Amino acid sequence: MQMTLRWYGSRFDTVTLQQIRQIPGVTGVISTLYDTAPGDVWELSDILALKKEIEDAGLSLAGIESVNVHDAIKAGLFDRDKYIDNYIATLENLGKADIHLVCYNFMPVFDWTRTELARVRPDGSTVLAYTQEAVDQLNPEEMFSSISGDTNGTIMPGWEPERMQHIKELFEMYRSVDDEALFSNLKYFLERIMPVCDKYDINMAIHPDDPAWSVFGLPRIIINKANILRMMKMVDNPHNGVTFCSGSYGTNLENDLPDMIRSLKGRIHFAHVRNLKFHSPTNFEESAHLSSDGSFDMYEIMLALYDIGFTGPIRPDHGRMIWGEVAMPGYGLYDRALGATYLNGLWEAIEKSHRK
Ligand code: CS2
Ligand code: MN
């Protein structure tokens, strides 16, 4: 595996490439053109400039997170082909720039949903958290305003203010889209993009829905083993693969994470590894990565990745806010650096204990 960190680009991230370069064992970043909107064609020159900036700092651009999918594609609207053509043009430019990993998601309206961005833990750190009770009391249109005060002045991925202004229309767009329709819209999209992925050897890695159940009555399909295996089968091409995000699949305690990893052998192209601490099955917070700080056995997760021969990029996912850092919630430097170091330690121990 290759240890990486997510980086939003020098104009948007509080963390610098020079800082990332000093985290032992982190050799690359996962980045994006953060100022593009879903449906835009990414220019080759912009991609190459991003790549050069990263390489000049002594790191590699290990993949893109995310190339976001336009809602017309997810909702299966009449004009979806135009947006798929644009997506294909972006993939073509990424392929020309020698980039072979694209993370994306297929969640209607919202990307991940949290109800608190700065829950205070006993040690004084703050973390992202979720309670179903809070969601049940909220009108989806209020969701954004209820958390926007805690973003530390940053733009949260998937929660761009311009997008949130149109939230009513977005909900309207998905009114007749149920799980089956969403599956079939995903199949249509994948079938259209697979030829360009085959041509440039681009691994598409779908990110799970977070939390892994329906929120605000919206359909959600990338939530468990049965559904993800169905998706792998419905477009049976190795380029149709998965971002295995332990913190997202893990929101549903019925998901057996190591078992899911083993069942996806050969199709996991990217891994997000983080821990959650549950107070009840629908009240959880994003704890430190260490097993004992949360509810997951991180050793077993890393061992499962090792067992399937995982060689792709991996990254610590959301970190806590510690040591007075002010950054995009989940994306500060300090706790993600601790997470990367811990995961690297687990990996080293697993590798050495498997030496014949
Ligand atoms: C998130 C998402 O958990 C995560 O990694 O922060 O925003 C994720 O990057 C997207 O859903 C992937 O498209
Ligand atoms: Mn993730």
TrEMBL record:
Q: What is this enzyme's EC?
A: 4.2.1.8
Name one matching Pfam family.
Answer: UxuA
Record-linked InterPro entries: Man_deHydtase, Xyl_isomerase-like_sf
Q: What class of enzyme is it?
A: lyase
Keywords recorded for this protein, A-Z: Iron, Lyase, Manganese
What's a single GO BP term from this record? D-glucuronate catabolic process
Query: What is stated as this protein's family in its record?
Result: Belongs to the mannonate dehydratase family.
Q: What does this protein do?
A: Catalyzes the dehydration of D-mannonate.
Read off the HAMAP family from this record.
Answer: UxuA
NCBIfam families this protein is in? PRK03906.1 (NF003027), uxuA (TIGR00695)
Mind telling me what this protein is named?
Mannonate dehydratase
* Organism classification: Bacteria, Bacillati, Bacillota, Clostridia, Lachnospirales
